[in-house]
Amino acid sequence: MEAAAGMISVDEARERILAFFDRLPVERRPLLDALGQVLAGDTVAPFDIPPLDNTAMDGYAVRAGDTAGASPGSPVELRVVANLAAGYLHETPIGPGEAIRIMTGAPMPPGADAVVPFEETDEPLREANAAPSRGALVRVLKEAEVHANIRFRAEDVRCDQVVIPAGRVLRPSEAGVLASIGLNEVAVYRRPVVAILSTGDEITEPGQPLLPGRIYDANAYSVAAMVRKFGGIPRLLGISRDTVEEMTRKIHEGLGADMLVTSAGVSRGDFDVVKDVLAREGAIDFWTVRMKPGKPLAFGAFTAPDGRRVGHLGLPGNPVSSMVSFELFGRPAIFRMLGRTDWERPMVRAITRDRVANTDGRRFFARCIVTQGEDGRWYADLTGPQGSGILTSMSAANGLTVIREDLAAANPGDEIDVMMLDWDHAP
Ligand code: AMP
Ligand code: MG
Fold first, then answer.
1. Is the pLDDT at 181 greater than 60, yes or no?
2. Atom of ligand 1 nearest to the CA of 316
3. Using an 8 Å Cβ cutoff, are 332 and 15 in contact?
4. Least crowded by CB within 10 Å, which of 99, 190, 254, 371?
5. Rounded distance, CA 13 to CA 19, Å?
6. Ligand 1 mean position, distance from CA 401 (Å)
């Protein structure tokens, strides 16, 4: 165990953390429970989609040649021989001068090579759009082109084709594609269970009365919410007082998880209690990461009773530091366990309208709001005071500035990098 190691960069801390975690084993899940999980194998289509040629419009299936020269002035009359809904086959070939009234999605009857939409017939002119009875005549007002309004067999997917490759994250579109080939279950990498422990004598569970001098536990909830949002399963271990005994006991309760997250107790003031527990029980490094907010961070592993090594991320106590550190280090760890590789947030170049001073050589993740100006360019405004206890600044923000360690200040009008947390969050 190496205590109080030197300052390391955000990138180095992240590399070390990523190097620890692995993709979790594969499990079969119902389609909707697997959103955000990664597909473990290629998905191959067992049939063509669409499986048969079918109509893209409500109208009349015809032989295009029969409609030659049709116009409103000289309509072509065809005899309606059937009325075909989606879901049914019409197996008798359509003969010369015949039409089949057909609804979107219904398979094309043999012999028909075009569909004339209702709007190009006299149907809309008829009273109450009444369907013509079998044997009635329909007037076609426009010549149909061969293949008009037909969706062809296999135009979307061909049988035996890979429709979704292994490694793809399951989003609503993937759920739809998988369902369209008849699957209601998928093989995906398991979601990580993340055990979360808050530490500190002053910390109180929300919902309980607040004694003077105490504060409510914000961190367990912001971190658990992030775990869930990023695709993991949070497990709240509650709050530990700053004693070695209680902390040891609570940490042991969390060792069934895939990762353990604690908050607070890693800065200098109460470093000692957490440090003692970790030194005795785990193999933990205390890091000073060159970032703001956040600086103190612990990372290491405990050995579970079954011999598994459970990664431990010790977040700083200040609520903003805790969230930003989990965003930078916890999110990639969760993604890695999920089998995802896309943990890099989208970055935008935005023009800052505020001065962002960065005096102490750390990477500065200031909370900001990115909006698009009337000129089409992106602008960043700070959310206000940037203290690492001001949690409402996280709530107001949709992004974090990334002000490099070696940049002493960004001035109004300068272009800066912003890491987007929530593109869809309206400021
Ligand atoms: P520490 O790292 O223990 O020195 O805590 C730093 C600051 O974060 C202190 O002001 C703590 O009261 C605060 N803090 C620690 N844990 C939490 C928590 N779970 N929720 C909100 N604030 C916390
Ligand atoms: Mg404390």
1. yes
2. 2
3. no
4. 371
5. 10
6. 24
